[in-house]
Amino acid sequence: MNKRQFLNELEYQLRRMPQAERDDAVRYYDEFISDADNEADAISGLGSPASVAADIIAEWGALTIAQSSEASGADTKTAGAKRKSNAFKVFWIVLLSVFAAPAALPVALAIGAAALAIGFALLAVVLSIAATAAALIISVPVMLVLGITAIPMSPLSACMAIGIALASFGIGVMLIKTVKIIAKHGFGGLVHWISGIIKRRSGK
Amino acid sequence: MTFQVGSALLDACALAVINRSDAYGYSLTRSLKSVIEVSESSLYPVLRRLRNDNLLTVYDVSHDGRNRRYYRVTEDGKTKLAEFAAEWRIFKERVDKIFSGGDDADGINLEIDSGEEELSDGGIDNE
Q1: Given the DSSP bridges, would you call strands B66-73 and B56-63 parallel, antiparallel or unpaired?
Q2: ipTM exceeding 0.90, yes/no
Q3: Which candidate, B42, B60, B17, B21, places its Cα nearest to that of A27?
């Protein structure tokens, strides 16, 4: 890899950063390599452009997030929300750059563990909603029988029991739909996210 | 070296070296590498951070038909460097105390310095 190739690759790895920051970093490494006695040695000493970029982006991300969290306190609500989404964007850029650098295996493992934890949490939420739905649906025939048998004795109580039965049925059906949607989008999204990361890593 | 250099110590060393004489990226990397274990790619983020905190400023000097960016320590940087040097001295004395095995609180004056002393010279002498 010669200087031009190194700098082009570095610039590509920094593409998500603001232009000024990217230019500053590329300029630094352009000078750094030019100032070295031996270009090839300097480039091999630096390591891969991806890992050099990961160092730059991590520092930039830390500075940017620190600044936005300092500033957002004094802001109006909308500007604060905008900053928050910026902070999330920065966090995302840092995460991607870390994955692009092959040296970041421990971080990759940590994120894998986090994905697993999110998966289990999602599963727990889905299961608990499903259990609630099942309990409501099971209660429907019981309440119906109770209501119908109560008609001769107390019509008002019968109305209430039948009403509860119908309401339980409705809520139960809605919860089942909710579970389906969460399962589809939540797990689908998680799988999509993980496979995206794996593709990104193996593509390098 | 067995001991890892953390980011605060790296900031301090970079400031100390630049405070001796203004430096450009490659020369600074070489100066630091001769003293502490630091990778070539970890210096740019340090310089970026120090610039962001207004501890360093940059200026360009033409060299071989191109510009070379030099770093200079600002007044804020000099103040910060003095703080770093003072804190380093306290830190070093505490560690020395542990190694020498002494247990009387402030009664230890280490007249004999080890090779480690070389590291801190830059910071302390330049105040």
Answers
A1: antiparallel
A2: no
A3: B60
Domain boundaries, chain A: 3-103, 108-203
Hey, what long-range contacts does A114-117 have (CB within 8 A, 24 or more apart)?
Answer: A115/A190, A115/A193, A115/A194
- When divided into structural domains, chain B yields a total of 1
Please give the average pLDDT of every successive group of 10 residues along chain A, which has 204 residues: 90 89 92 89 88 85 72 54 64 72 66 80 89 92 90 88 92 90 78 67 50
Rounded CA separation B56/B47 (Å): 8
Contacts of B67 in chain A (CB under 8 A): 31
**Closest by Cα among B39, B26, B49, B11 to A103:** B39
Q: Does residue B2 lie in a domain region?
A: no
Q: What CATH number corresponds to the domain at position B86?
A: 1.10.10.10
DSSP designation for A194: H
Residue B45: its chain A contacts at CB < 8 A? 55-56, 58-60
Compute the residue count for chain A: 204
Which of chain A's residues have a Cβ under 8 Å away from the Cβ of B66? 31, 34
- Mention every residue, 6+ apart, whose C-beta is less than 8 A from residue A91: A61, A65
Please name the member of A27, A36, A47 whose beta carbon is closest to the beta carbon of B41. Answer: A47
Contact A66, B104 (CB under 8 A): no
The answer to whether residues A43 and A2 touch, using CB atoms and an 8 Å cutoff, is yes
Distances (CA, A) of A52 to A21, A25, A26: 14, 10, 11
Contact A59 B45 (CB under 8 A): yes
Contact check, Cβ <8 Å, A56/B42: no
Q: Which of A45, A58, A59 minimises the CB distance to B40?
A: A45
DSSP class of residue A68? H
